[in-house]
Design brief:
By secondary structure, the chain is an alpha/beta fold. The protein is 29% helix and 24% strand.
Length: 352
């Protein structure tokens, strides 16, 4: 059975926040100490490492489920299917719906249920649920949807990844400049005309690595201790990703019976430009090769890191010719890969 992606959609919020917008922020160390460098220097170094020049934030009236709905509408239209024919809606996220100015995430009902409601789907046999798997959540949801179709439990699945990280960031943490908002979605069906998932691999590393990403209080020691924000051990994550992600990608590729020279694109989680470049370089080194110059599309420069949404947004935009110097054609082999909180890793080898 060939199970493939028949439609894609994405939503990038309209509010653009540039690096210079952080010049007046009061950045502090994790212990509340002042940095010796000016904000201009901090931002310059930040951009050199991450590649991020700007990011997108959701409008105040839109929540994560709304972004997911907007992406889902486009994916359904792109696939040309009847929304009532959907068997599953799977929404990958990390923080639920966080309203602008609020400190509590809302997951009751699930975001997938909210999307089903917004889509006005009447079919009660269309099952809607969420998954929490860190930044690799959308890829993991894709793997789950594939399993449902493969075992005969479903024929059509809507897979969404969305996040509004701008509402869970500490304004006094310089890492807050990394995060952004957005959503991406796809329709997965048993239809060999539109591609095929060849293989997948997933891992959870929780023996010492579980809390590389975590929730904690603001860096401002005089701030409200009740409010918690997304925090990370950047150095540990970088080392972890560069060590383990290339191996997982190679394991997935080897089991797919596809050669490294057949890989046309790697759609990797848009987390950090330097880290992603290092991962791709090490991945190709496993095969004694150098990474082709155009194998890794990157849009983190203008999108930022919107967690589970990065891979589906990137794939949708490349698929629709919206990323300069990158395109896809039928028969191309690509890899989806991600790493994030958990610490979780996954990869999918896909033939267009």
């Amino acid at each position: 059975m060939k199970i493939g992606i028949t439609g894609t959609g994405s939503y990038l919020p309209e509010i653009v926040t540039k690096n210079e917008d952080f010049l007046e922020h009061r950045f502090l160390g994790s212990d509340g100490s002042q940095f010796e460098h000016s904000n201009a220097t901090i931002i310059e170094k930040f951009q050199a490492i991450t590649g991020i020049a700007e990011r997108r934030y959701a409008s105040p009236e839109l929540k994560t489920s709304d972004l997911g709905f907007l992406a889902a509408e486009k994916a359904i239209k792109d696939a040309g299917i009847d929304k009532e024919a959907l068997d599953y809606i799977i929404f990958a996220h990390n923080f639920g719906d966080v309203e602008k100015g609020k400190i509590q995430g809302d997951t009751l009902p699930s975001l997938a249920t909210r999307v089903k409601h917004l889509l006005k789907i009447k079919n009660t046999s269309c099952v809607a649920y969420d998954i929490l798997f860190g930044c690799p959540g959308w890829i993991e949801a894709l793997i789950q949807a594939k399993a449902y179709i493969q075992c005969g439990m479903a024929k059509k699945c809507l897979v969404i990844g969305g996040e509004t990280l701008s509402r869970v960031i500490d304004p006094h943490d310089r890492d807050s400049m990394i995060y952004a908002d957005g959503a991406g979605a796809c329709i997965l069906e048993a239809d060999g005309m539109y591609g095929e998932i060849l293989n997948h691999a997933s891992q959870t590393h929780a023996n010492g690595e579980a809390y590389y990403l975590y929730f904690d209080t603001t860096n401002d020691q005089d701030g409200c201790s009740d409010t918690r924000y997304i925090k990370m051990n950047g150095r540990k994550i970088y080392e972890f990703a560069c060590t383990h992600v290339p191996k997982a990608m190679a394991e997935c590729l080897d089991k797919s019976s596809v050669g490294i020279d057949e890989v046309k694109k790697v759609f990797i989680h848009q987390a950090n430009e330097k880290m992603d470049e290092a991962i791709i370089k090490r991945f190709y080194r496993i095969y004694g090769k150098q990474a082709p110059a155009t194998v890794m599309p990157m849009i983190i420069q203008e999108m930022g890191n919107n967690s589970v949404a990065t891979v589906p947004i990137l794939f949708d935009r490349v698929r629709k010719g919206k990323v300069d110097n990158h395109g896809l054609k039928k028969g191309d082999v690509v890899i989806f890969a991600s790493v994030g909180a958990g610490m979780n890793i996954n990869a999918v080898v896909y033939r267009i």
